């Protein structure tokens, strides 16, 4: 009976030791589980924060995309307006060019007719020139006397000019 009692007491001690060991393991696992829960909680908060930032970034990107699309459409519209203006200006200039070409042809024809008229006039003038040359020769004699008098007067004026020039230089 003693042997059985000791044997049972030994089993109880072993069971208490084992229970103590399991209790310590449970406390260690409970502490680890608490750490895991805290870590999970932090990760969930971080994930929520990241989701919020992602949502905000996505909204910002959509706003940016919309603004960029509007700017592109506006620039496209402006370009189309400029193209239309340039196109109409090109048509106007093309028509003006055609008009100028017509005017050039008219002016060339007019120039040719004026050239012919100029030749005729030149011949007439040459005849008149010959006549005037003869008249001039008769007047040259009269004018030579006048030229001589004017030369004398010119010499006097040059002397007076040189004197005034000299006086100006000395005054300066």
Count of helical stretches: 1
Write down the overall mean pLDDT. 95
The whole-angstrom Rg is 60 Å
Roughly what percent helix? over 70%
User: Which runs of at least 5 residues are low in confidence (pLDDT < 50)?
Assistant: none
Strand content: under 5%
Distance between the termini: 156 Å
Secondary-structure-based class equals mainly alpha
Q: Got a strand count?
A: 0
Task: Characterise the protein shown here.
- One of its GO terms (cellular component) is Golgi membrane.
- Keywords: Coiled coil.
- Residues 5-60, 90-142 form a coiled coil.
- It comes from Nyctiprogne leucopyga.
- This is GOLI4 protein.
- By secondary structure, this protein is an all-alpha fold.
- The protein is 99% helix and 0% strand.
- The protein contains 1 helix and no strands.
- The chain has one helix spanning 2-171.
- The longest helix has 170 residues, at 2-171.
- The protein is rod-shaped and about 185 Å long.
- 0% of the residues are buried.
- The model has no long low-confidence stretch (mean pLDDT 95).
What are the key terms here?
99% helix; GOLI4 protein; GOLIM4; coiled coil; 172 residues; mainly alpha
What secondary-structure arrangement, pairings included, does this model have?
Layout: H1 2-171
InterPro entries: GOLIM4 (IPR042336)
Keywords: Coiled coil
GO cellular component, one term: Golgi membrane
